[in-house]
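I'll show a record.
***
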Amino acid sequence: MSTVTDTSRNGVDTEKMFATLDLIKEQPELAKFQFRASNRWLGGAHNRSTIKGFYAAGAEDASRSDEFEIDAGEPAILLGTDTGANPAEALLHALAACLTTSIVYVAAARKVELTSVESQLTGDMDVRGALGVSDEPRNGFERIGVSFRVTGNAPEEKLREVVERAAKRSAVYDMVTHGVPVAVDVTTE
């Protein structure tokens, strides 16, 4: 008689997750990824990024059939027409999304069934720097606050450990808190 085991927790196939981790441990070269985005200015503060292809596990990945489109803009007070979240808000979204996904994966690995993960993020910014009005404030966020509300089938201490571990594993959290070199190249016509 065979035993049926549930390999899905929090919507994550844990059997596949652990197999992927084992494979990457055995073949570290498979861990090299390159994500890409293309952006085009549409007028005023409105621009659009498209995301589709990426490099993963030693080859170009072609699993996505459609592009993702993300519009950006600015609110009227910053001379825009609200064509999308502004780039600073998109950064807050990226941070929230990466932390949330990390929480879900860490919880699944630790056999914690989640019932809810919600977050509120705030980014404090003095826009004088970004607008070139003053060199005193930095151009970006001075501080980002993240507040999570997590519920699941584990004691409070275990849920807090899941969130702490997720922050240590979140790629976007790492990029925001430790910075990343950015190379800018320009072609003119």
In short: The longest helix spans residues 87-109. The longest strand covers residues 114-124. The mean pLDDT is 93.
